């Protein structure tokens, strides 16, 4: 319910996966990753391991022999247009997190010349799904201007789930930035001497692209629409229903965990993700619930567990009240029965402003987004009596800082005969991605009862 906008911060953090070239990479090799930029291959502008990433027009990224802290070369990032104030350029290096330790430290030297924006060296650690586990950078130091070689250091904890260590020096705006003698240490030991994990997999499986996994996909025609879904695992069925303007991919952490025991059916609601909507009328959660009933019938599923987030939770409540024979257990988070009772007036006003802004656009996506956001203001229309009709056990969840008012979440739980209530401390409306482990544990404990 009421997903307005997810802030896109640091869009340039998406990188290609690091590729191991041979089993020799498991052996300690001095400067294995060209951290001093001394390894040059035929083209003098090429450098081993590092790449130019999202280099913008007006910049160049190359090895340079005119400036260096030690050795013969350094890495240069330069704005050659000198009038591109807002753009940036970067290089990146992705190192497999194959090391046995608790902390990663990077040390490096920077030299600047006439930098009017700022220099930075973002450093992050990702898991096997390329999701950020830890992140830090130099922004707090606000490095700019002209300065001679100076060493900097950044540290991050190394979690057991880590699969890659990502380094990406970058330059914002005009100027020149040189980088040299990068060092990566694991618990204070250089990676060339650091201990390798005994269970490190040289060729780990590629991440599953949830929401775009053709192998697991299917399509079902419903009234004036076509639904896209993906199926994972075996066991009792578990239907996953996402929120407004979302898609299957938001549940990737849940699919991975739940498919170990359940047959997970993750579906894109009509008009969202890869599902199509050919209708011309308004949207409603009753329509969504009818779509899910048809989907279940087409898959010959007579009864299912349901996990619904936000809009998906609203749909789940309607299914449990309207089609009780189809619902075994229902878990919902951030759901509501009536928007006027569920959220603050300021939140409703934000939605109205977003709708008015979208109405000025003529593209099909914006027009459909108006329909999705309008539903947030007008739907659903569940009463306490409707909730009392629900016979299935229901786990009612929300974040402590959810946009759904806590009193409303408690109202839902209080009126469902077989309900359990759980409020996640410190979490917002996005608790499934903010507190993955805790959220998954609560849902699985409920389903396994």
TrEMBL record:
Coiled-coil ranges from the UniProt annotation: none
InterPro entries per the UniProt record, alphabetical: AB_hydrolase_1, AB_hydrolase_fold, CenC_carb-bd
Keyword line: Hydrolase
Keyword Transport: no
Keyword presence, Hydrolase: yes
Signal peptide: none
Top-rank taxon: Bacteria
Domain annotation CBM-cenC: ranges: 36-165
Domain AB hydrolase-1: 237-348
GO molecular function (one): serine hydrolase activity
Name of the protein: Alpha/beta hydrolase
